[in-house]
Amino acid sequence: MASELPTRRAAGKTTAFPAWVTALVRLRSVLVDPFGISRTGSEARDKLGNFPVERAYETEVTAGFDDRHLDFRVSVCFT
C-alpha cells in the first residue's frame, strides 16, 4: 500500500503533540532541569521537534539523541 503522506511529513507528525501532551512535556522539563537532563535535545541544523535528524531517506527518517539518562531514537519508515 502506498503512503498517503511523504515520509518527512509523516515523521513530523511524531512530534506534533496535542496541547495536553505539550503541557506534560513542559512540566517534565521543569522537573528534570535540576538533574541536568536535556530539555531541548542536541543542537542540529535539521530537527524533528527536539530530535536531531540522523538519517533521512526517501522511505525512512530516523531522529534522536543520546542524553545522560537514555539514548532515544524514533524511526518512521514506509516500504
Tell me the strand order in the biggest sheet: 1-2-3-4
Strand content: 25-35%
Low-confidence stretches: none
Shape: globular
Structural notes for this entry:
With 79 residues, the protein is of the alpha+beta class. It has helices at residues 7-12, 19-32; strands at residues 47-48, 51-56, 60-66, 71-77. Helix content is 25%, strand content 28%. A 4-stranded antiparallel sheet has the order 1-2-3-4. Strand 3 (60-66) and strand 4 (71-77) form a beta hairpin. The longest helix has 14 residues, at 19-32. The radius of gyration is 14 Å and the shape is globular. The mean pLDDT is 80.
Question: In a nutshell, what does this entry contain?
Answer:
This protein has 79 residues and is of the alpha+beta class.
Which features does this protein show?
79 residues; alpha+beta; 4-stranded antiparallel beta sheet; 2 helices
Topology (SSEs and partners):
Layout (H helix, E strand, L loop, with lengths): L6 H6 L6 H14 L14 E2 L2 E6 L3 E7 L4 E7 L2
Antiparallel strand pairs: 1-2, 2-3, 3-4
